[in-house]
Amino acid sequence: MLDYDGLLPVFVKLTEAKTHEIKVAKEMTFPKGSVVVVDRGYLDFGWLKVLDSRGCFFVTRAKSNMAHEVKEQYDVEGGVLQDEDICLTSYASKKEYGYLLRRIRYLDSRTGKEYVFLTNNRHWDAQTLADIYKERWAIEVFFKQIKTHMKIKSFVGTSENAVLIQIWTAMIPMLLLKYLKEKADYKWHLSNMVAFIRLNLFVKIG
Fold first, then answer.
1. pTM for the complete prediction?
2. Long-range contacts at 178-182 (CB < 8 A, ≥ 24 apart)
3. Calpha distance 94→100 (Å, rounded)
4. Cα distance between residue 2 and residue 74, in whole Å
5. Are 30 and 36 in contact, with CB atoms under 8 Å apart?
6. Can you list the positions of beta strands (E) in the chain?
7. Residue 70 in contact with residue 55, Cβ under 8 Å?
8. Strand 114-119 and strand 101-107: pairing?
9. Which residues contact 161 (CB under 8 A, 6 or more apart)?
10. Distance CA 15, CA 110 (A)
11. Domain boundaries defined on the chain
């Protein structure tokens, strides 16, 4: 979940590696009108039905072997190759989500990669929905920056509490650095700003 006022993650939940993401997602509630954007790891039609029933929109990636039937097709333009209403046809998925879904097939002109999105939003145009999914990448960038700049290469302690403390200790300054970067008058690259702060951390100014 991304807060567009600050472009920072709203929450983080740390779990053991064996805990699947969808288990955590099902424990969460979102305000009505929220747009939940998730990758294919969260594709659970029962959960999507819950989001729909609570008045939330979702945008996710479709799996390549998803059985479905096209009900209606719409005009497309730009990078949008297909925009259609579908219903699921396999017994299990149809039982979990019996409503119409919107399926968008999209070609990214920059990378040449093709994506297939699923959503329950029929108000926004297909390009907007593709752009919304692209914004999800900001979360991946955030975690990449943590790995690059906070350098958690090994853990000082091996107990669950010690590991959590070290991860949170990296997460908190990363959030503060991202906040400073957004507020700074000078448009820093994050790596340059981190290097500058490291060099001047104990320098007396004034």
1. 0.75
2. 178/7, 178/8, 178/142, 178/145, 179/6, 179/8, 182/6, 182/7
3. 10
4. 30
5. yes
6. 2-3, 8-9, 35-37, 57-61, 68-73, 80-88, 101-107, 114-119
7. no
8. antiparallel
9. none
10. 35
11. 2-135, 139-200
Strands 101-107 and 35-37, by their bridges, are unpaired
| Digit-coded pLDDT (tens) for 149-180 | 766 777 778 788 888 888 888 888 888 888 88
Q: Do residues 148 and 75 make contact, with C-beta atoms less than 8 angstroms apart?
A: no
Structure tokens at 49: 């039905």
Nearest to 24 by CA among 13, 33, 35, 16: 13
What are the residue ranges of helices labelled H in 105-154? 126-135, 137-145
- Give the residue from 161, 165, 43 showing the smallest Cα distance to 93: 43
146: nearest Cα among 165, 164, 172: 172
Structure tokens at 144: 């990449």
Taking only the tens place, the pLDDT of each residue in 179-203 is 888 888 888 888 888 888 888 888 8
The CA distance from 197 to 178, in Å, is: 13
- Smallest CA-to-CA distance from 124 within 52, 184, 74, 67 is with 74
The DSSP symbol for 19 reads S
